[in-house]
Amino acid sequence: MTVTADFDANMEEGRCVLRFSGNLTMLRVRKLSEQLKGIDADQVTVDLSEVERMDTVGAWLVHKLERDRGATIVGATEEQRLLIAHVTQADQPVKLKRDYEMPLLRVVGEVGSASQMAMRTIFGMLGFFGALLISVGNIARHPRRFRLNAITQQFEVVGVRALFIIGLMSFLVGIVIAQQGAVQLRQFGAEIYTINLIGRSSVKELGVLMTAIMVAGRSGSAFAAQLGSMKLSEEVDAMRTIGVSPMEALVFPRVLATVILMPLLGFYAAILSIIGGGIFCWISLDIPPVTFIQRIREVTPMTDLWQAMIKAPTFGMIIAMAGCFQGMQVEGNAEEVGLRTTAAVVQGIFLVIVLDAFFAVFFTEIGWL
Amino acid sequence: MARGGETIIEVKGLRNSFGSQIVHEDLSLEVKRGEIFGVVGGSGTGKSVLMRSIIGLQTPDEGEIEVFGEPMIGRDEEEAKHVRRRWGVLFQGGALFSTLTVAENIQVPIKEFYPGLDQELLDEIAAYKTTMSGLSTDAGAKYPSELSGGMRKRAGIARALALDPELLFLDEPTAGLDPIGAAAFDQLISELRDALGLTVFLITHDLDTLYAICDRVAVLADRKVVAVGTIAELLALDHEWIQEYFKGPRGRAAASIAEREEASA
Predict the structure, then answer these.
(1) What are the structural domain ranges in chain B?
(2) Chain B residues with CB inside 8 Å of A55's CB?
(3) How far is CA A22 from the centre of its chain?
């Protein structure tokens, strides 16, 4: 049995006879198709009588000889003829490529659509916020629609399960601030002010900010991915047709849970960060814990905590909104879910930091130094 | 068609379970070369699980599975590859790769198994496969999300046929197609079977498909294959579910259409 498809090209009575043999299948077609291009004859006869197996790709080659060179086919079995007929029937002008665009035009087009997209995101977010307020109003008027189960479930996912990682992160950040601060302050003989640094930066800034970043990474992304895949599988549409508002059932519990949990997590992070710093001070700077705590209480004003407690829920709101908004924008395919999840995290963190800068200026202006 | 020929798929003593729920118990069946083998059964009788076991997506608890005379259980991926090349699978929802166009989807298996084919030939192959599967001429450049459910299914068929497989697994291929499209698909399958000597393992609920193209039909019930045979043979059996399935209002309608077509042929 010959496995390789091969062919002889003989001149017989002024016609070029291509006699194929062996398996005329995809496996062997690559070489054949190149060799066939080298044959230069007008009158071609294709002899298939020695072909053992032929698949559609083989049939396609034969069909092309017939189409392009007017070849006559002889020696085909009934099945092979059927296959060739089948392929011939399928030979229609088919569009395979997307329309070509000029690179320059494409760049301009992409810049345009990106700006358009940015505008649409801003307006979309505003609209989304409005829709959320409406659903808050609706829930306030019909308290039975308040989904306690959904909210407590989000408490667990957003809050309880994040405790370990946020705690660990804050603890380490506390140590780093204390260590770096001590190195710099030592130059002025002001090591004792390390405590001020730890207390104030942890409570006022880092506790909440680091928590916000962690929550955006953990929960903002999860919201986007969950809602996004629910949109893809038409669960959100199904909800709407049943008369359940996705805004009330999906978005509201997530936003509320994050808004409530952010201050708690932020406070927890601040405490852990102070503990981390305190342990460093104890071990490295020989400041006993009692002195450390006393000093922390003296140097950290209450307004630092108020600042944190105002910022935290705002950040929570932003992160949850960005996550849910991006999730609800998913349309089309699975790749979109990934893109939207990335966008949710990036936008969440970006907005949090912009807002944090705004808050810093604002609180300084009103005298909460 | 060619009955009593070479065995292509052999399943012996298959047992599948999910937790405490047993789906298959001591299930056995044989599919011969060149036949269109239908599998029917009520919802939840494990038709898709059976198919997934045969193509190696689900490892059964017990039992033997041979495809093309080669054992499939416990094979590593590299060894199983040359068997995978010889079959094509159409999943229920089409399962197209959503980030590739239809034409690129069709070219994926070809590029995977036959690297080095030139792009011109690849494009020609993708072109005739799309028309063969009954897709419109502009469908090749579209992404799956731009296609309707029925079109997605056809694109899935085109991809399953990309390597000119000897064996084709179809999971409810006509579900979601309009009756005209479903009939055209039935015809496509039987034509390809005749032309390529295709063996088809077909899970279906479509009675018209069963009557029109299936050579033998296996009935799944009570965790195993309760009967295998031509529809005429099945009808003669005294099994409650089979009687209800084929003699219910839909079964009778499909049977009468099949009779009329035979009479006019």
Answers:
(1) 95-164
(2) 164, 196
(3) 51
